[in-house]
Amino acid sequence: MDESLYPLIAANVGFVGTHFLMSHPLRASMVKVLGDTGQQIAYSVISLAFFIWIYFAFTAAPSADLPGSGTVGWIIATLLTLPAMILFAGSFAGNPALGLPGSDKMARAAPKGVFNITRHPMMWGFALWALSHLVLFWSLRTMITAFAMGFLALVGAHMQDRKKEVLMGDAWATWESQTSFWPQLSGFAKAGAAPWIAGLVLFAALSWAHIPLGGIAAGIWRWIPL
């Protein structure tokens, strides 16, 4: 393995590891010492530091050093990215997992929007985005980072359920009884227009951004050149 990948591996391990530690075993201690706001600030600063390290380590690592999965891979990746963007776009409205005021009331209400698909739309959005990059088999740096982000998303979603069961009690139990951990395809038809419109806009914009940022045409732009 190219030695330039070692810092990238370390940065991803640090990013994932600190997320888990600060969200679970260290959370109570951090809140006790720093308070809720202080814990959130420390969490954000540490996460940002590791994310910046990932960025610089990623750009320093070799690109396109794997054979790629060809046209089939690009088709699969494109088909995975669209639902990922729909889930992500819809994950901010009425999400009791975000810990906003009124979270208990949200958790006891009937699921709406993308929560008809899964109670973890943001996490599954990241997971599908990660999988879309893994199937491309484009470079080791991409495989390492995408695997780390997908692992963080799905294991983090499972651990979030356990944490919320403790923090929110019956409210989260009600939410779990009304929603599914695993995405339900039939839920996309019930998600409503807003997540679809926002998701399509994100899908078009972020896939286009591959061109100026990475020099690679991705998504629909691979077949609709500008």
Based on the model shown, name its key terms:
mainly alpha, 8 helices, 226 residues
Describe it for me?
The protein has helices at residues 6-23, 27-60, 70-90, 103-108, 121-134, 140-168, 170-178, 193-214. The protein has 226 residues and is an all-alpha fold. It folds into 2 domains: 1-61; 63-222, no CATH class. The protein is built from 8 helices and no strands. The model has no long low-confidence stretch (mean pLDDT 94). Helices cover 68% and strands 0% of the residues.
What is the helix fraction of residues, given as a range? 55-70%
- What is the gyration radius calculated from CA atoms? 19 Å
Q: Which sequence of SSEs, written as H and E, runs from N to C? A: HHHHHHHH
**Anisotropy-based shape:** globular
Structural class: mainly alpha
Number of structural units classed as domains: 2
Low-pLDDT parts are: none
- Mean of all residue-level pLDDT scores: 94
Give a concise summary.
With 226 residues, the chain is mainly α. The chain is built from eight helices and no strands.
